[in-house]
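Following up on my earlier message about FE2/S2 (inorganic) cluster. Here are the inputs again, as you asked, copied directly from the submission form:
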Amino acid sequence: MKLRSAAWFGLRNRDGFIHRSWMKNQGLPDHLFDGRPVIGICNTWSELTPCNAHFRKIADHVKRGVYEAGGFPLEFPVMSLGETLMRPTTMLFRNLVSMDVEESIRANPVDGVVLLAGCDKTTPALLMGAASCDLPALMLSGGPMLNGKFRGRDIGSGTDVWKFSEDVRCGAMSMCDFMAAEACMSRSAGHCMTMGTASTMACVVEALGMGLPTNAAIPAVDSRRYALAHTAGRRIVEMVKEDLRMSKILTRKAFENAIRVVGAIGGSTNAVIHLLAIAGRIGVDLTLHDWDVLGRNVPCLLNLMPAGKYLMEDFYYAGGLPTLIRELGDLIHRDALTVNGKTIGENVAEADCFDREVIRTAKDPFRDNSGIAVLRGNLCPNGAVLKPSAATPELMKHSGRAVVFDNIEDFYARIDAPDLDVDERSVLVLKNCGPRGYPGMPEVGNMPLPPKILKKGITDMVRISDARMSGTAFGTVVLHISPEAAAGGTLALVQNGDVIDLDVHARRLQLEVSDSELVRRKQQWKAPQPVFERGYYKLYFDHVMQADRGADLDFLPGGSGAGVPRDSH
Ligand code: FES
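Thanks, got it. Here's what our run produced:
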């Protein structure tokens, strides 16, 4: 087996001296440079990313496994993306991190890599970057937080923030109680423990075959998370010896499995964009249409917030993702290969269920027909998405007058105004929150309702935008409209009072305005300018693709392999 690390550490000359000598300042003995596999541990640890703040400890357990299997572990940092602090939005930087990951792997003496990810964007960013190198790679998720506990009941990350915040706005909760809930929600290491984007993507990792069985749901502080890290370290060394590269695992079948699993868990709409982007990097032809077709008859088996009652900790104790995958039976390609060298069918064959309240059977699902609905029409010729399991059934076919907001600042400035011309049949329309428009496509699509509607006891309205939505949120929310307003899509032309028709069953979203009127409005439309005329913002603005293409940069799909670059010494 010829290892790429030998091009650094195997040289008996001046360059080899340089490569080894400086490494030895870390106390590394000679025998580690004897030609054993070098395993990179790609770490998104950061104190600014609280969901990933325990990753140094996880990396230590990965190292134990690597050493035990005869490998040489080397941990390296990449830019981290903390969902709760970064502005304007982490999504702006997902592609930047993917470039960091790709170039860090290729430029260094790495034979295989363990990817440590947790908070929402860290998972797709690391998979995208590593896929463009296509070395043996295994992803280890950081695990969810323990259940939130507030005054005798379980509360979920994000989901209960939105609920509490609406309660405060309509006077049902005091500000004092609201503040008291903060520490009760996030009470251990780990990522959001609802079925938000982080949990969805952790399930996607396991469903794709990129993570070891049970990776998705073990709580971050459970000792079994650290045992899994140890096992991952052992396994990646074997993967290097077997030359088990990402492209052997990330096949079309793997993506189809992941799409169905996202349906069965009631997963986040963000998975749509991320999976399209990952597929683009590894060269699998995946489209929005695949999401609609493959997810259409998938039942939601999981009773987790935001759609249901329970949380990730409960999911793990009920059996975790292997149990759910086994329950999907023929909807899953059981012969798809996974990182442990077995097929996904073999991995889940013995999985038992320990709580049928949490993981339901295919015969008695939590919800029928879950998946992601992909809408078309003159408002979204290239597509838009809606999550039926988070929507109100009565609003899935709806016609209403548009109440238009030009951007999110305009929305916040006017939504609480008592004289806002809106009723419960209105359709809230938000523009300029897509990839180019914001920039970075933030999670603002689940716009809060006007107080005067909330006071009537109404908790959902049809809302449409080119933005994304937090996976912890809920409502009849049309997202990812493509082309976005800032790219001159029809969304840019919607005016107050226009009638919008939504028919989820028919997969239709239509603006009831004549073509000639739309042409007239388009002539008056002015394209926005980038926020900054330099730096990464400018690169992103000039090159980001629309949501239906995964919002990757247009020069990043595909890969450049992991050949050894020339030396400069
Ligand atoms: Fe990090 Fe939710 S804020 S996963």
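One observation from looking it over: Residues 51, 83-84, 119-120, 157, 191-192, 196, 198 surround FE2/S2 (inorganic) cluster (CB under 6 Å). Hope that helps, and feel free to reply on this thread.
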